């Protein structure tokens, strides 16, 4: 059967096959510019809220137009897949908390493989070659805006796309196709009078409904940020070692609707799981060891120095005395000044290791790191001679 010139039949087929491929949500929108999303993006960029994420500084005309990704595009098929792996157990062991989306395998790879198979399956069913590009996350397109227009959900005040039936713990993926498909109605729903996410965000990053200032967001600070976690924000990071889920955890939609992902690749057992052992991570000294431990999971994103930086901050916040020997090792011999500086901060927070800090101050050549060591010494016991 030739459905390539039957927008209604082709849409029905795609919905059916996408669900059979394991996607929880499917919808279609025309490959037209995302005007409202683009306008919001422009204001967000102008306010500096994109921080130093180079990929988010690209022109609005590119990020808000699916045709820029594929000239012949006529429709965008938005797909949603729940990654919800369950709730964090209590952090009794003093671990580094990992956001739920990152407990399992790297979703980019997992979803890409399924999209590829879905596309093959569609071509077979349609009996024709189609031009289709599949993406998730690593794509210059406002995926939430496209998905909202394709009917996958509504924008929560935390800026996440929320589906009335499964909440917001889902990834968005896209299949951009050159087929004419009957579009869905945009997603609807409302937060009502709830403002929990805005009230509970640990760093006050949600500046207005749907507007997240990445410079303050723990997810940015612990994943995309390549530099220091600003000192004044470190305390608010709490025990988050990778990402943050607070604005989703408090959301009533997730409390009542979140159901565990059907994809085994997103389960805690298949990857890093809900917590990182702080000392184990702080012992990793080379990129090779780091890859061996985290390859194939989302945790490679901040790089070795970034993840160790985060674990230092968690150790300081939890006042993790058993991590003191390994923090001292980081301070004296980690090759990255980012790690040495955050290790100094953690030791200062725990209020120990004055000798190690003094020794490090004498040997340290990096100016920023030296500032951290001095601050730790002053913070630890108010030694003004070193401040
Ligand atoms: C950059 C980025 C980040 C940045 C900035 C986040 C942000 N809110 O802007 C950081 C690193 C902080 C981040 C964090 C997270 N991210 Co992120 N991120 C992205 C990325 C690459 C671009 C987002 C973007 O365009 N931001 C710019 C701002 C202006 O857009 P926006 O926040 O998405 O908001 C849009 C809509 O919500 C809409 N909107 C918002 N409110 C309202 C209200 C009205 C009335 C209207 C009309 C429109 C509207 O307008 C905006 C423009 O389209 C997307 C993937 C992609 N290519 O889209 C993933 C993406 C948004 N991230 C995702 C995830 C899972 C997360 C985290 C949950 C990870 C974690 N646990 O740590 C957190 C959530 C934090 C949060 N509250 O947003 C998912 C979200 C899925 C979903 N159900 O919403 C995405 C879609 C990736 C994917 N393919 O699955 N992320
Ligand atoms: S992810 Fe965390 S820090 Fe970022 S906006 Fe949500 S609650 Fe705030
Ligand atoms: S916590 Fe409340 S305000 Fe925030 S996204 Fe959920 S329903 Fe909306």
TrEMBL record:
InterPro entries: 4Fe4S_Fe-S-bd (IPR017896), 4Fe4S_Fe_S_CS (IPR017900), ARM-like (IPR011989), ARM-type_fold (IPR016024), QueG (IPR004453), QueG_DUF1730 (IPR013542)
Gene3D superfamilies per UniProt: 3.30.70.20, Leucine-rich Repeat Variant
Coiled-coil region(s): none
GO molecular function, one term: 4 iron, 4 sulfur cluster binding
Key words, A-Z: 4Fe-4S, Cytoplasm, Iron, Iron-sulfur, Metal-binding, Oxidoreductase, Queuosine biosynthesis, tRNA processing
Annotated EC: 1.17.99.6
Signal as UniProt keyword: no
Any one of the GO BP annotations: tRNA queuosine(34) biosynthetic process
Residue span, 4Fe-4S ferredoxin-type domain: 179-211
Protein name: Epoxyqueuosine reductase
Native source species: uncultured Rubrobacteraceae bacterium
């Amino acid at each position: 059967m030739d459905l390539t010139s039957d927008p209604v039949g082709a849409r029905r087929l795609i919905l059916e096959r996408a669900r059979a491929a394991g996607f929880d949500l499917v919808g279609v929108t025309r490959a037209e510019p995302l005007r409202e999303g683009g306008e919001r993006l422009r204001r967000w960029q102008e306010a500096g809220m994109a921080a130093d994420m180079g990929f988010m500084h690209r022109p609005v005309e590119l990020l808000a137009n699916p045709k820029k990704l594929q000239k012949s595009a006529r429709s965008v098929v938005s797909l949603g897949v729940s990654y919800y792996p369950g709730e964090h157990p209590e952090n009794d062991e003093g671990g580094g908390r990992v956001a739920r989306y990152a407990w399992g395998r790297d979703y980019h790879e997992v979803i890409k493989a399924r999209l590829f198979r879905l596309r093959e399956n569609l071509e077979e069913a349609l009996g024709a070659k189609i031009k289709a590009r599949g993406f998730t996350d690593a794509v210059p397109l406002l995926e939430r805006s496209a998905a909202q227009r394709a009917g996958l959900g509504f924008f929560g005040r935390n800026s996440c796309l929320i589906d009335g039936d499964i909440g917001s713990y889902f990834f968005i993926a896209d299949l951009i196709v050159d087929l004419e498909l009957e579009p869905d109605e945009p997603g609807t729903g409302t937060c009502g009078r709830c403002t929990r996410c805005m009230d509970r965000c640990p760093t006050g990053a949600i500046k207005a409904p749907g507007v997240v200032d990445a410079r303050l967001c723990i997810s940015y600070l612990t994943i995309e940020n390549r530099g220091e976690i600003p000192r004044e924000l470190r305390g608010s990071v709490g025990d988050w070692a990778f990402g943050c889920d607070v604005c989703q955890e408090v959301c009533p939609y997730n409390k009542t609707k979140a159901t565990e992902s059907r994809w085994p690749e997103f389960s805690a057992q298949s990857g890093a799981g809900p917590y990182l052992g702080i000392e184990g991570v702080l012992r990793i000294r080379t990129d090779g060891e780091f890859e061996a431990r985290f390859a194939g999971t989302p945790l490679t994103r901040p790089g070795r120095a970034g993840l160790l930086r985060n674990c230092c901050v968690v150790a300081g916040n939890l006042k993790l005395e058993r991590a003191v020997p390994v923090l001292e090792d980081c301070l004296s011999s980690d090759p990255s000044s980012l790690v040495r500086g955050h290790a100094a901060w953690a030791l200062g927070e725990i209020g120990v290791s004055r000798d190690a800090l003094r020794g490090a101050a004498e040997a340290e050549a990096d100016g920023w790191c030296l500032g951290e060591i001095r601050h730790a010494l002053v913070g630890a016991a108010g030694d003004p001679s070193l401040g």
